[in-house]
Amino acid sequence: MRSILLITLREYLTRVNKRSFWLATFLVPLGFLALMLVQVIILAFSGESVRVAVVNEDKALFSDRTMRDGANDVFFVQSNVPLQQLKTSYKTLDFDGILYIPSLNLSNPNGVRYISDEVLSMTVRQQIKLQIEDEIKRLRLLAIGINQDSLNQKIEQLSVNIIEEDPQGGTNKNAALATGVGFGMGFLMYMVIFIYGAMVMRGVMEEKSNRIVEVMLSAVRPFQLMMGKILGIGCVAITQFLLWAALLISINLLITPILALVVGDVSTLNSTSTYNNAEAEAMKNVIEEAMNNVVALPIETLLIGFFFYFVCGYIFYAALYAGLASAINDETDAQSLTFPVSVPIIIAIFILSAVAENPSSSLAFWSSMIPFFSPIIMPFRIAFGVPLWELGLSMLLTAIGTFASVWLAARIYRIGILLYGKKVNFKEIGKWMWQQ
Description:
- The chain is mostly helical.
- About 65% of the residues lie in helices and about 5% in strands.
- Helix 6 (about 175-210) packs across helix 8 (about 220-265) and helix 10 packs parallel to helix 14 (about 390-415).
- It folds into two domains: about 50-155, Periplasmic binding protein-like II (D-Maltodextrin-Binding Protein, domain 2, 3-Layer(aba) Sandwich); about 175-435, no CATH class.
């Protein structure tokens, strides 16, 4: 055990003291921050204001109102200048285009034209289209005796809140919140396995190609060397994720006032917003419901389960990567030998998408019991709540699978790590597993 701890410490300190570790640790969150700021700045400053002169010859259309100014600095100005004269002078009047509305047949409203030397953007086109369609709908409703404005006032605050309960009267988890948490945990496990499992593989290959491993094996057993490398890189992963979490929290505290300065406070949004009042209210209710149901999530079980599957899932796949990497003598063989290890991880992501539709299905149950898939599937299911016996059985099978993975990888490692100059295939690797 002391040898494993020493190798773990050496592997950890060697990687943490590298400049590349700190560059990656700081640049990844800063890269996310830069992308967010660039996106916000582009959205905020991507377009100039657009002024459209409206020539409306339909006496019924917009008879008691004017076209509303649209989002993204789009302004509609009613013009009394004749159309032919306006065509030659709209630019001198500081307009970007002319919207011509002829007398329309409400049953077949065709003939609306936009006149400009510049191409009409999709945003402005959609705003014009929606406003005219809404006005035509209003006139059609008036024709059958329905006042749309009064109707909107009566129904705009209408929303239905569905409360989920279990048979004992307890409140069930919020599906949207549980799905978000579950997907977050599942993809985090996916990243850990791929990124740090590949790091273990590269570390084994480098030490073998540099012949450093021969010196180290003169003092420790192959199993101790392999486990020390796996645990050391695992500690590096935990350190890096903790630093990323701290940096992301700090960035979140800094970016909120910056976003407020760039795009303005949400409370300044007016009726030109893309969403109408009913949709905004419904969205607000969904957010409030999600916030109120955070306490309904099994927080303790989530933390314990995530830590367990984080450790076991990483060791399970890292051991396989290390075992197969020890048999590689040429970089060109790396992909062909390690690809079978990557396939179950990719399949687990496909299964995760299906499980999201029904976390209690047979597919969800069995995939959360198979050690190849359980580190990704079970953390997702925990967010929805799973029976303790299912969680316990999954943990037991995952622990057994992890032990088996380490055992098999160690048997491959003890032979492959000292094998040079020979191309190895899976048939030969299979013989190593049972060789005494």
